[in-house]
Amino acid sequence: MMENRISFFECPECEDKPREACGVFGVFNNNGFDVARLVYFGLYALQHRGQESCGIAVTNQNGITGYKGLGLISEVFNDKILDRLDGTIAIGHCRYSTTGGTSIENSQPLMANYKDGRMAIAHNGNLVNAEKIRRKLEESGAIFQTSTDSEVIANLISRYGIQTGDLEEILVKTMQQLEGSYAVVLMTQKRLIGMRDPWGMRPLCIGKLDDSFILASETCALDAVGAEFVRDVEPGEIVFIQGRELRSIRGAAAEKPRHFCIFEHIYFARPDSFIDGASVYKARLEAGRRLAIEHPAEADLVVGVPDSGLTAAIGFSRQSGIPYGEALIKNRYVGRTFIQPQQKMREQSVDIKLNVLKEEIAGKRIVLIDDSIVRGTTTRKLVQMLKKAGAKEVHMRISSPPVKFPCYFGIDISSTKQLIAARMSIDEIRESLGADSLGFLSVEGLIKTPVGAPNGFCTGCFTGEYPITPDMAESATGCD
C-alpha cells in the first residue's frame, strides 16, 4: 500500500506563467544502486516541472510499495523514508495538477492491479478524451479512486489485461485509445516501461548508468545522477526494459505528424536539457537573437527577467550589440508553488521575489526580456519597479508570441478569461503594462529556434490550431 504524507505549506509568490504538469523518472537497477535515492536525485533535477506533490515507488521481492506526499521533494522525503524503499526497479513523479485537484489521492506514482499482478504508473501530460473513457469504464463497472488521467490509463491496462496476458498487446491497445499528450513511466514486478504519445508532445528520454537503464522527462535528470544519454523515446513508441535488455515496439500509428510542445523550449524545460536533439539553452539564445531582429530597440542595457528570461536576453544583446546586464535580483529562497487568488497578494509577491539594482538602471533606456506574458500582472509590476528605480525608458520584449488560446495538453491554460492577449491588442497591452514599446517574437520565428530538432511543433496556445481538440476526441473510438 502506498503510504501517504501530507505537508501543508503556503505560497509566497504567484508566477504569472503557464504551469506544466509533471516530471517522471524511472530506473531499472542492474548494478546494486540505491534506486530510491537515485530516483530522489532525478526528481530533484525535475522539480521545476511540478511542486505540488511527489512520490517514489519501488519493486522488490515483497511486491510494489512506495511513498508520496504533498510538497517539494526535499519536504516529502528524508533518509529514514528512503532507507525503507529498497528495490530493483523504481519510478518517481513530481506533480503540478492540470487535471484533478491538489490532494494526496491524486499524487503519483499511482498503484493499480491488473491480471498479471501489480503495477505503478507515473504520467506527464493531459488526455483530452479522459472523461469519455472514464464514463465508459464506469458504465462497465470500473471504480475510480482519483480524478487524474493517470488512473484512466491504469484502468484501461487492467481492462485489456482481462482479454490477454501479453503486456505488449495490452499497452498497444491502451495507447490506441488515448488522445492527447503523455509521457508515461510504468513499473511491473519485472519490467520498467516508457510510453510517449504519437504526437511527441511531452518529452521522454533514455539513459544508462553503467548497466542500468533510466527513463526521464529531461536529460538534466540524467546528468544529475551521472547517467549517459542514450536517445529520446520516439513519438508513439513503447520501450520495455528488463535486465540488461531494452526492447522497443510501435504502440500507435507512425503517420501522425509530430507536434512537440514548443513551450518546453520557451519555458518549461531546464536550459541545460536537450530534447529531441535540440539544446534548450541554444533555443532560448536563438529566440532572443530573432527577437532582436524582429523588434529592435534603441536602448542602453538589455536585462532579463530571472530566471526564464535571462538566456533570451543574452541572445538579444549579442544580436543587437546593446550591453547585457543585471537589473533584477531574485530571492533564491522563494519557491514556485501555488497561485494566490488575491490580486493584492500577487502584486506583493513580486516585491518578495525580485528587487531592482537601482544603480545599474538609473537614467538608462532598458530592454526588458521575458519568455511570455499570460495575465500581465507580474510584467506590469516589473515595468513599474524599473521606472520607479529611475529607468528612463522600458522596452518590453517577449521571446514567444502572444498567448491567446487555451491548452488541452498539459499546460494550465484552460480558458482565455485571464489571458491578456486574448482581449487586448499589442498596443493596448503595452499601454496596460506601462512600457514604452512592446514586441513579441513571431510564430514563424519561434518554430525555428530549436536548432536541430525535427520539424513539427504544437503552437495551439498562440495560433488556436491544435493537433486534436476535445471535440475531435469525443468522436474518436474509445474503450472497445
Structure description:
With 480 residues, the protein is of the alpha+beta class. The chain is built from 18 helices and 24 strands. Helix 4 (130-139) crosses helix 5 (149-163) and helix 5 (149-163) packs across helix 6. The chain starts with a strand and ends in a 6-residue tail after the last helix. The model is unreliable at 1-15, 336-343 and 473-480 (pLDDT under 50). 55% of the residues are buried.
Tags for this entry?
single chain; about 475 residues; alpha+beta; eight-stranded mixed β-sheet; six-stranded antiparallel β-sheet; 18 helices; globular; disordered N terminus; disordered C terminus
How much of the sequence is in beta strands? 25-35%
Helix residue percentage: 25-40%
Give the tally of β-strands: 24
Any low-confidence stretches, pLDDT <50, length ≥5?
A: 1-15, 336-343, 473-480
Please report the number of helical segments.
18
| Overall mean confidence score, pLDDT | 88
End-to-end CA span: 31 Å
What is the topology, as strand order, of the major beta sheet? 1-4-3-5-2-11-10-12
Shape: globular
- Overall structural class, as computed from helix and strand content, comes to alpha+beta
Largest sheet entry: 8 strands, mixed
Radius of gyration: 23 Å
Write the layout of secondary structure elements.
Elements (H helix, E strand, L loop, with lengths): L2 E4 L15 E7 L6 H11 L7 E8 L2 E8 L2 H4 L2 H6 L4 E7 L14 E5 L2 E11 L2 H10 L9 H15 L3 H11 L2 E8 L4 E5 L8 E5 L2 E5 L2 H6 L3 E5 L4 E6 L2 E6 L9 E2 L1 H6 L5 E2 L2 E2 H15 L6 E4 L5 H11 L7 E3 L12 H11 E3 L1 H4 L3 E6 L6 H12 L4 E6 L21 H4 L2 H8 L3 E4 L2 H4 L10 E2 L1 H4 L6 H5 L6
Parallel strand pairs: 1-4, 15-24, 18-21, 21-22, 22-23
Antiparallel strand pairs: 2-5, 2-11, 3-4, 3-5, 6-7, 7-8, 8-9, 9-13, 10-11, 10-12, 13-14, 16-17, 19-20
